[in-house]
Design goal:
By secondary structure, the protein is α/β, with parallel strands linked by helices. Among the domains are: 2-86 and 103-163, Rossmann fold; 168-249, no CATH class; 252-310, no CATH class. The protein contains 20 helices and 13 strands. The chain has helices spanning 13-21, 39-53, 68-72, 86-99, 109-133, 146-157, 167-178, 210-214, 217-220, 224-229, 231-237, 246-249, 251-260, 265-279, 287-300, 304-310, 324-337, 383-405, 408-417, 424-437; strands at 2-6, 31-35, 61-65, 77-80, 138-141, 161-163, 187-193, 196-204, 207-208, 240-241, 341-348, 361-369, 372-375. The chain has a 6-stranded parallel sheet, sandwiched between helices. Helix 5 crosses helix 18, helix 14 (265-279) packs antiparallel against helix 15 and helix 19 (408-417) packs across helix 20. The model has no long low-confidence stretch (mean pLDDT 94).
């Protein structure tokens, strides 16, 4: 089976390959094609993968190319993990937004809109190429903003594109561990959009254990989200929010923490990864060791500003191991081998949430089999959550409209309507600022 990874020179690709190396079952991936626009990055990552594969006799073959069409032809699965504009683009997204006093995070608020405006046209081009060159392939989208990009690609690929994120899975596993349950045996009642969802129940043997967690302040304070949001607020919600909702519920504190930080997250990662790729230019550098050291630092500093503003302290060691590669492999296995499973995924709504239309991409538990991912029926969201979901989905639709039409006015509308952008004038200045620093937004007229 052939797997193509777009953004194959990206820093997190070895996580995916490591998961593939642990899969020895029939029908596994035997050939991985890495595609990237940067040949130097491809070379660096290929070296890391070669060291990972040392001593593994049935390791998947790895080839690399800068030719997109060549990479897609004959693919059974396509992982889309691109970053349009690179980490410099992410740093610019943060800087422009923070100068206006609003959030610049890559998937939430102004930064997420800017990232979407320059990513969607590229993702749509990829979707059209997949439809032409590999019509039977399944596309698994890692590219942020994951829900928005998945919805854009689904207009050309239908249900053959599925978005993944490790945040809901990690949240569910943390709650299960705190409750003394086996995460693999728990049913996680999770619903929302990507980076905008809530765990409303965790059922073990048919019993919902979440009320027990919400009633115990000590348990609530023992894991990442409890530290971020505080026990009182979680009890008020009656649910456990995705960690990214900290940007909404504690927006002023988050923006202030980012403004006061020595470097934004994007600038930190830009500089950190530049050092990694520079070090990899030395042919004698121990590729896997250098990569692993850099990865550990990256994971340990994840959402550091939010944890600092909440007084949450350091991340637990169990939360430093990533996870999206495990979701991707489980999804691929379920489809390729008809190994039926349940995963939280980004898929078209169908009739799952009545407040959204059938084509809106949402993030919910799905039953997965050889025919793809099928969202399960969920209870309606409470009013406060429904309001947020509908408002953010409306913004995503304006982003898609702006990329379709090239309308600058529609782009301004997308920014202005977002709950974390509090002024039409700010929205106008954001569009001006982003079009000045991002050549990829020249299409907005």
């Amino acid at each position: 089976m052939k797997l193509t990874i777009l953004g194959g020179g990206g820093f997190r690709v070895p996580l995916v390959y490591g998961a593939l190396l642990r899969d020895h079952a029939e029908g596994r991936v035997t050939h991985v094609v890495l595609h990237d626009l940067d040949a130097g990055r491809l070379s660096a990552v290929t070296r890391v993968l070669a060291e990972q594969a040392a001593g593994v006799p049935d390791a998947p073959e790895v080839t690399a190319t800068t030719d997109l069409d060549e990479a897609l032809r004959g693919a059974d699965f396509v992982f889309s993990a691109i970053r349009v504009g690179g980490l410099q683009g992410r740093a610019d997204d943060e800087r422009v937004a923070l100068a206006e006093g609003v959030l610049g995070q890559e998937t939430v608020g102004a930064g997420g809109i800017a990232y979407g405006l320059r990513t969607v046209p590229v993702a749509v081009d990829i979707a059209r190429r997949v439809a032409r060159l590999a019509p039977d392939a399944w596309v698994i989208n890692f590219t942020n903003p994951a829900g928005l990009v998945t919805e854009a690609m689904s207009r050309h690929l239908g249900d053959r594109v599925i978005g993944i994120c490790d945040s809901p899975v990690g949240l569910g596993r943390r709650i299960a561990r705190v409750l003394g349950a086996n995460p693999n045996e728990a049913w996680i009642d999770y619903v929302g959009l990507n980076h905008l969802g809530w765990v409303r129940g965790l059922r073990v043997a048919g019993r919902d254990e979440l009320p027990r967690l919400l009633a115990d302040p000590d348990l609530l304070g023992s894991f990442e989200e409890g530290k971020l949001f505080g026990a009182d607020w979680l009890r008020s919600l009656g649910a456990i929010p995705n960690e990214y909702l900290h940007y909404y519920y504690f927006n002023r504190e988050a923006v202030r923490a980012y403004q006061q930080a020595e470097k934004t997250r994007g600038a930190f990662l830009r500089d950190q990864q530049a050092r990694f790729y520079a070090e990899m230019q030395n042919p004698d550098a121990p590729a896997l060791k250098v990569w692993d050291r850099t990865r550990a630092e990256r994971e340990a500093t994840y959402m550091a500003e939010n944890r600092e503003s909440a007084g949450a302290g350091e991340r637990d060691e169990d939360d430093l191991s990533g996870g999206y590669e495990k979701v991707a492999l489980a999804l691929m296995r379920a489809i390729a081998r008809d190994e039926r499973t349940t995963l939280i995924l980004n898929v078209r709504n169908q009739r799952t949430l009545s407040v959204l239309d059938t084509d809106a991409v949402i993030e919910v538990p799905c039953l997965v089999d050889a025919n793809g991912a099928h969202p399960v029926t969920v209870d309606p969201l409470p009013g406060h959550a429904t309001g947020l979901v509908c408002a953010v989905k409306a913004v995503e639709r304006e982003v898609l409209a702006a990329t379709d039409s090239g309308s600058r006015a529609t782009a301004v509308k997308a920014f202005a309507l977002h709950p974390l952008v509090d002024s039409v004038n700010v929205a106008r200045r954001l569009v001006e600022g982003y079009t000045e620093v991002h050549p990829g937004l020249a299409y907005l007229r």
